[in-house]
Amino acid sequence: MNVMSSVMRGARRLVHVDPFPLASLLSLSRRSPAPFLTCQQTRKLASKQVKGQRKDQKNQKVKVKVDKQEVEIRQKMTVAALAAAMNKDFDHVLEALLNTPVDLDALTPDSVLDERWIKEAVTRSGMKFRWAKLSESRERANRDVLPRPPADPSQLMPRPPVVTIMGHVDHGKTTLLDSLRKSQIVSTEAGGITQHIGAFLVQLPTGERITFLDTPGHAAFSSMRARGANATDIVVLVVAADDCVMNQTVESIQHARRANVPMIVAVNKCDKPQADPQRVKQELLAHDVVCEEFGGDVQAIHVSALKGDNLLALAEATVALAEVLELKAEPSGAVEGLIIESRTDRGKGPVTTAIVQRGTLRRGCVLVAGRSWAKVRFLFDENGRVVAEAGPSAAVEVVGWKELPSAGDVFLEVESEQRAREAVEWRSYAEEQQKLTEEQDAIGLKQQLHLDQYRKQREGLTHLSWRQRKAALYRENRKQFAVRPSEKTQREGRSLPLIIKGDVDGSVEAILNLLDSYDAQQQCELELLHFGIGDISENDVNMAQTFSGSIYGFNVAASRPIQQLAARHGVPLRLHSIIYKLVDELKAELSSKLPPLLHQHIVGEATVLAMFDVSVGKKKVPVAGCRVQKGQLDRRLQFRLVRGRDTVWEGSLAALKHHRDDVQTVKAGMDCGLSADGGVDFRPGDVIICYEERDAPQITSWDPGF
What we know:
Layout: H1 2-17, H2 19-29, H3 35-46, E1 70-73, H4 79-86, H5 90-96, H6 115-124, E2 128-131, E3 157-158, E4 162-167, H7 173-181, E5 198-203, E6 209-214, H8 222-230, E7 234-240, H9 247-258, E8 263-268, H10 277-285, E9 299-302, H11 311-325, E10 328-329, E11 336-345, E12 349-358, E13 361-362, E14 366-369, E15 372-380, E16 389-390, E17 395-401, E18 410-414, H12 417-458, H13 466-482, E19 495-502, H14 505-516, E20 525-533, H15 538-546, E21 550-554, H16 560-569, E22 573-576, H17 579-592, E23 597-616, E24 619-634, E25 638-643, E26 646-651, E27 653-658, E28 661-662, E29 665-667, E30 671-676, E31 687-696
Parallel strand pairs: 1-2, 4-6, 4-7, 7-8, 8-9, 19-20, 19-21, 21-22
Antiparallel strand pairs: 3-10, 5-6, 11-12, 11-18, 12-17, 13-16, 14-15, 14-18, 15-17, 23-24, 23-31, 24-29, 24-30, 25-26, 25-31, 27-28, 27-30
Subcellular location: Mitochondrion
Family: Belongs to the TRAFAC class translation factor GTPase superfamily. Classic translation factor GTPase family. IF-2 subfamily.
Keywords: GTP-binding, Initiation factor, Mitochondrion, Nucleotide-binding, Protein biosynthesis, Transit peptide
């Protein structure tokens, strides 16, 4: 023991002098079977210890790094804002601040927390915080394309007038244009009615050139007529002399007035025996269209489009009015114009019918319209011939669009394709920002409603402590979740999902405007799944099958494989080339979704002549002696007792007898006795009606206006 003590004292003295002899001494005194282990222990004692390093590294446990949720905090945060940043509720913040000097009962969602307690609440919740960065959003530069400023009057040159022919359906607008350009357009339109906007350049025998726009007269194409009026210089209002001023005639007058365009009245069909042009002009007075013979400034020309009578006078009146208007345009510079119609051609791709309003359109020009752009590859006239250029007032078909623009868009020329892409991207960005703003406003409104409901719910709990308040809210929410309906419920009510396909943008627009007027949602809900331009595709059929919908196509085709696919999946495929037939079938399909109505069909009537009692066992039963006046009485059907104008009783008969025999039916002119269950009070003079209830088909109340 003394020896051991002396050894330890010597070791302590050696530590203060030099550590290496002590290491040697310890290594010699230990019994180690492996020299390698001895060397390793020597290195541990000889190495420099790093600050914070544990001496016993064998027992050190490896900690698994846990990713904590980051909470973005800032100065002067409210309790509600902190809870929202942590994605927790208000009571969670209160729980996190337990056992702190904070007065929890005084806290409200709008209470402002100190920086210390904000960090404390985040840390106690097992999260980490970071300060919010104050960064200003950088505004995107406006790269849109704008029209050029007005040209110098000295650079303006005379241009042909753009004349739009408008009026009611079947009043002879297209036939009038046929006679002017010596062609047969009517034969190419389904049903003999115009369903597209047609643009044609007509050269008169006198040498003047006029660009005519033929608009549809059907009620469904109101937007097309409005677009034609906005692109025109003169409106020729066609009214049939054998008819009167109709709805679309009045609408055309209103379009012309809104566009501030002068009018010429063409009284058509004057060759018919029942024609009365004077009556038509007098009816126009009621709509403030005063012809020259009544002291006004509107020219009225009597024509016959079918026979070609007096068409030269109409053309001269148009040219004279154009000279008075002094129509001029700038033929040089960047091109500007208006898209009248757009469609997808199987061989050409996206094609637009456009009117040049400024500049000269040539092949290779880069155009921007809406959210689409084009590098012009070809220009076609109304006869399908390739033209090299198109000046002001010329109507051409433009090929080369990357995407199909909408009818009514203004197209502008830019210097390069890169500039066109920038303009289209900016317009898409601006539209997305506008949509985002609208959605944020809607979300803010929903949040405000939710907050108001939340505050209203907590108004009665303000006197409680936060623990009592939490317990009360828990009990209330538990009841609500118990009666909460399942989210996976079948859709109640009747609905008709639709897919609309059309040949041109204007046709689809007309059908969509019709669907916007649908006002029978309480009967059957009308859902628009998809609309587009072009033939029926496989995607359309698959979408219609998914939503149990129908496909309506206007002036489009469906290949045989598509038709077979639709038949195999049970998808209704309804293709039409006349607008009102499409609407009629749509109304019929809507009506087929409605449940049938019970209709009471009267089978016969009888008059009560006398009353008497009949003994049945020990019981006396009142019996009415009647005479059948109309039809017949059938015991198996329902009966109604009418006294004066009041219905006294409805039900079935207990017995029906003719003389003493029980019968099923009694015909007109025969006497009978009948009794009813429940002791009905029959009186002489009462009328007994025999009726049966039949199912009658219900018709939708939607009226599109034609």
